[in-house]
Design goal:
single chain; alpha/beta
Length: 376
Amino acid sequence: MRDEILAIPVDYGREIQIYSGVARLSGKIWARAVHPGQGKSTTVFLIVHPTSNFLGHYALEPFAERGYAAVGLTTRYLGNDTSLLFENCVLDVAAAIRELKRRGFEKVVLIGNSGGGGLASLYQSQAENPTITGAPGGGGPDLTAADLPPADELVLLMAHPGRAQVYTEWLDPAITDEADPFKRDASLDMFDSSNGPPYSAQFVAEYRAAQVARSARIRAQITDRLESLEASENPVQDFAFVVHGTCADPRFLDLTLDPSDRETGTLWGDAWTANFAPSSLGRYASARSWLSQWSLADSQGHGPTHLPHVKAPVLVVYGTADQAAFPSHARQLYDAVHHSDRAIVALAGANHYFIGQPDHVKTAVDTIVDWTRDHD
């Protein structure tokens, strides 16, 4: 196998959305390509996520061992999604595909892994039929005027429908004061043993409605503040804030909900700790970024919204022991594809990151390669 670091040209624009001037001024994003040891692959697997570092992705070497080139992409928001705009991530994926085509690859298979599922679906729909002219909070790129080469096939691997949906499903509705997450409504507290687990159908219904309501309250606070700041004597286009309690999905504690082979808890340990940890999902955000990636009412990075417009073949691969992307998520993605060239594959017992499961990594890669070969 041969390793290569790719420096991919991108236009960061005039807005400062990442702190590092060195990164912005370089005019590049980075990716790692792993090539097979012998021969030249004309097909490349491009693995994407809005913010994760995929330079060391677990599937890169296994793809190369099967005779295919594989690329793990990092977007401009590598490791820091506080100011992330989904719409800019689309430009980064486009830059990567253009670079791969320039290097002579004839077929690009776009793999949206985990939170990359929403991004990959958004990208492919806009590449095939661009409709988005800006970001929800204002600004952002006009995708109808961008150069977005479509991928040839789309794979959604251990993916959830999108960041805004998962974020809302994980919001803690027991929080009554955004400034103090420990002021709590006991009737909506999944950590209050009087409510469960197991949780009643009525509790879950009220809980889900309260999560949507909390999302709407946060959104209203954001939009009101943005409007007042933009109208002030010294206009401000964005501001930062904290959202507490973002890891409180009842499915983390009640395995009868969306039943699967998963264990209780989260990807980051027990749910109570993860719910308040500084490193948890969407803890810090700018106003415009929150609208773009976390707002249920506004985010454009929602797979099931875009997949009906995708004409490329789609494969959904999910694990039955996944603690973050549940079976119902995989089904939502699969059902959203409106053509017949689609497939869904369950990996029995596979967890989200295939931790301690090298055989599942091999099975996942074999599944994707065999499906791709069927489309040659």
